[in-house]
Design goal:
The chain is mainly α. It has 2 domains: 75 residues, no CATH class; 215 residues, Orthogonal Bundle (MetI-like fold), CATH 1.10.3720.10. The chain is built from 13 helices and no strands.
Length: 319
């Protein structure tokens, strides 16, 4: 197992290099000049001279050959000197440190909602197959899959404002400052994300559990006189959890990678707003760092899921 983990960690390096090259090249190919956007200002009507344009281009290093720009940036990534935002001139590391903990809180709370809703109703739907309980839960899952997250968030925000006179707070409170207030601010965005994503978890849990419940060893357990509750929880669920774990890992990676729309709808100061602003202003340092950071998050989560496979199923061994 240790050798497998070491090999996987070493494979992170070529993957991150490839992703960094791709995002670096893509941001140089897309139409637009970030220097012009900076000098023209947010309204696009700022006046500047040719000398000012060339001076700023030189200061930002855009006159260097592309390979020089890439190696300077990649060296900065390794040394945690991620440069400065072209739009705000703020250090990218400061943006990430200040805003990503908020995104992390929202992602983990949303993941908790997905797991606590999707898995139980998936189990109940499988146990009550082809009954009214199964039909209701399947319809609930399909409804969640069919509704876009932003649309559900807008409906939720409209309902909260009309029926409960609740609007998103103008100032966010961190979890370590006031846990109760922070959770109150995050629970509705987390519900919007969780209700939209639970359908995938529910359907996977149901299908895998139904498949396992048809296996010979489950019929043998029933024939030996074990209670149905013990058959399901001791034998069936344990052996059907691995595909569900894969889905949960992918969902958690997507959540940790950013909850842009939800953060904007509910006025949450996570990474959503910097990403939107960076896309609009071609803020290359911000976009490059965020893409590479999210890639690393996905790689780590995939590794943790593989390790969890071996812990949950002793038949799985990595050599």
């Amino acid at each position: 197992m240790q050798q497998y983990i070491l090999r996987r960690v070493l494979l992170f390096v070529p993957t991150l290099v490839l992703v960094s090259v791709m995002i670096f090249a893509m941001l140089r190919i897309v139409p637009g000049d970030p220097v012009l956007l900076i000098l023209a200002g947010p309204d696009g009507e700022g006046a500047f001279t040719r000398e000012e344009y060339e001076t700023m281009k030189e200061q930002l290093g855009f006159n260097d050959p592309l390979y020089v720009q890439y190696f300077k940036w990649s060296y900065g990534m390794v040394t945690l000197d991620w440069g400065r935002s072209l739009e705000t001139n703020e250090r990218v590391t400061d943006i990430f440190k200040r805003r990503y903990p908020v995104t992390l809180q929202l992602a983990l709370l949303s993941f908790f909602v997905i797991a606590t809703i999707g898995i139980p109703i998936g189990v109940l739907a499988a146990v009550k197959q082809d009954t009214w309980v199964d039909y209701i839960f399947r319809g609930f899952a399909i409804l969640g899959l069919a509704m876009p997250t932003f649309w559900l968030a807008l409906l939720m925000l409209l309902a909260l404002s009309l029926w409960f006179n609740w609007i998103p707070p103008l100032e966010f409170v961190n979890l370590w400052e006031d846990p109760r207030t922070s959770l109150t601010q995050l629970i509705f965005p987390a519900l919007a994300l969780g209700l939209s994503a639970q359908g995938t978890t529910m359907r996977m849990t149901r299908s895998q559990l139904l498949e396992v419940m048809r296996e010979d060893y489950v019929r043998t357990a029933r024939a030996k006189g074990l209670a149905e509750r013990l058959v399901i929880f001791r034998h069936a669920i344990r052996n059907s959890v691995l595909p569900v774990l894969t889905i949960l890992g992918l969902l958690l990676g997507a959540l940790l990678g950013g909850t842009i729309v939800i953060e904007i709808v509910f006025n949450i100061p996570g990474l959503g707003r910097p990403v939107i602003n960076a896309v609009g202003s071609l803020d290359q340092p911000v976009l490059q760092v965020i893409v590479v950071a999210f890639t690393l998050i996905f790689l780590v989560l995939n590794l943790l899921v593989d390790i969890a496979y071996a812990l949950l199923d002793p038949r799985i061994r990595y050599s």
